[in-house]
Write a structure and sequence with these properties.
By secondary structure, this protein is α/β, with parallel strands linked by helices. About 25% of the residues lie in helices and about 25% in strands.
C-alpha cells in the first residue's frame, strides 16, 4: 500500500544563512504526511536531483534553502520535472535561493531582499472554520515577520 501513496521530497540544503527552524519544519511536514497519507523523504544532498529520482515524487519542497544549491545538471533535472507536471512548494527562504538562475526566479516569483525585525500585529479572524485559521486566536496580537522581495519575475 505504501508504494501507492504519494511521495514528496523535502530539500533542505543551505549555502547561505541556515534557519534553525529547518529540522522542526521537516518534522512538521513528516507529521502532515502521516496525517494525510503521503510519504516524506528528506535530504540536504543535491545529488537527489536526477531525472530518474525526481520521477518518484509528487512534489518537491524547498524548505528554507539558501544560496546556490544545485549544479547545472541538477537544475536541468529539476526544471524538466516541473515542466512535466511535478509539484513545487517553496517555504520561506526558498526565495533566497538560486539568484543566478532566472528560470527559478520565475518559478518562485521573486527573490528575497531583506527580512525586517519581527513585530506585533493585531489580527482579526473572519473565518475560524477555515483550515488556515484554525490555530489563530480569534482576535489578538501575534508576533510576525515578513519578507521584502526584489527582482519580481515577469511572465
Amino acid at each position: 500500500y505504501a508504494d501507492k501513496m504519494p511521495r514528496v521530497l523535502v530539500f533542505m540544503k543551505t549555502a547561505g544563512f541556515y534557519h534553525n527552524s529547518i529540522p522542526a519544519g521537516a518534522v512538521a511536514i513528516q507529521k502532515l504526511g502521516l496525517q494525510n497519507k503521503f510519504i516524506v523523504d528528506t535530504t540536504r544532498d543535491a545529488a537527489a536531483f536526477t531525472k530518474t529520482n525526481l520521477k518518484k515524487y509528487a512534489a518537491i519542497i524547498f524548505l528554507n534553502t539558501t544560496g546556490t544549491v544545485l549544479n547545472d545538471v541538477q537544475k536541468e533535472a529539476f526544471k524538466q520535472y516541473i515542466q512535466k507536471g511535478g509539484g513545487f512548494v517553496g517555504v520561506h527562504a526558498a526565495s533566497d535561493t538560486e539568484y543566478e538562475w532566472p528560470w527559478y526566479n520565475g518559478l518562485v516569483g521573486a527573490y528575497f531582499l531583506s527580512h525586517p525585525k519581527q513585530q506585533k500585529a493585531h489580527i482579526i479572524v473572519k473565518n475560524s472554520t477555515h483550515i488556515s485559521t484554525g490555530i489563530c486566536p480569534q482576535n489578538g496580537n501575534v508576533l510576525m515577520s515578513g519578507i521584502i522581495s526584489k527582482t519580481l519575475a515577469t511572465r
